């Protein structure tokens, strides 16, 4: 909207070029270009960019705009109209997955705005519930009737077939009715509605040498017509057909029902306005070492972040894209506070217990450094108070409009294991997840136990309703070469990868459906130019 006008006699002829950034060397690579739209300052580009989206990765994007003056593919031959930087998370995390941002890059000039919308590709998420029966199948067994079952295959690009489903065996009948089964559209036909699906009918034999009765082919598009005369298939045995002149078929298979179910995704909720609230809790216990010493895990090195700062930034910079107000509560535990030296296990890093919110990740970092100067590291290491702190908020909004993520960064020597387990079991019923990053050289056996990936965590005989804790040791990610960018991207990826599934498991158990997204943006009619 309102692009710069660079042409003397007519309006600009804009094109948009999208770049993505490599994580390690920060190099920008061209991802693709839209079409050119002639003679307009308010283009609505049609060409879409299809990208892979991962909640747990930060994908930096750059949109460059040019006024195209000739047929040359070389961008330096055209007039630069400005650029916009954002992350893929920012776009999908915006209300309705629609982001509007100012175009920058030409000093002293207003370059207009760009509106980017994202949508998740839908064909990949459907699954189908279908049921078949058969009539008058060939009798294959000497003593009884046949014991038929079906085998489904999807076809591949090269013409080969891959097995994707087997029904159960129905014993001793030539007119079986199989149970309904559910299969993802991806598995059935790779999302391609016209691709061949081959179905084979066999007679089951105990020794595994199942007898082939016959086969037929169909496609998702045919099956989707549901129960009808189109979905009665003749089962053909090519060998018999070749030998016997009077051969008609080896029976028929009929589709009884076909129901499409769309799986809702994490992004459906985000698009419908669910907010992710991010809270940080930092371990200020004496076992971390004196912050003024270089050996301390809290050492304030003027030249680079310490482990706490690195972990905080790695995780926070990705989650902040899903939190519209970018205000994060930041807490500390295990320190003595001024003025009277009382020990606290949930104090506000910014010194304001009424309002522990910090603005953005930078605000959290600032409050963390300020606290280090004012509090005295002490002990013991109690997790339960900060978990209960976030749980109180999570308990007040159970309607699916908000989800809470607590990041605990700790040197790992936990003092209140029983209380923490109890807190986690209670929190597993709430819309929240807990990420624990262990820094320093300690043994983290207790943290592994809290993680619950191997054995689901329990307290007083009650098991956690869902697995909500993800633990990683920071030392596994330290890059010997000193390249922290890549190692922190890996850390974030590993701690955040489980969040969408934990989020969905909460919504599923509670039967919460995504809110409808706000209506899509429609441009006013009069700016639409025709492309000649």
UniProtKB/TrEMBL annotation:
GO terms for molecular function: calcium-dependent phospholipid binding; metal ion binding. Keywords: Calcium, Metal-binding, Repeat. GO terms for biological process: cellular response to calcium ion. Residues 277-478 form the VWFA domain. Pfam families: C2, Copine. InterPro entries: C2_dom, C2_domain_sf, C2B_Copine, Copine, Copine_C, VWF_A, vWFA_dom_sf. Coiled coil: none annotated. Residues 1-101, 110-233 form the C2 domain. It comes from the Eukaryota. GO terms for cellular component: plasma membrane. Belongs to the copine family. PANTHER family: COPINE, COPINE-8. This is Copine-8. It comes from Cuculus canorus (Common cuckoo). The lineage of its organism: Eukaryota, Metazoa, Chordata, Craniata, Vertebrata.
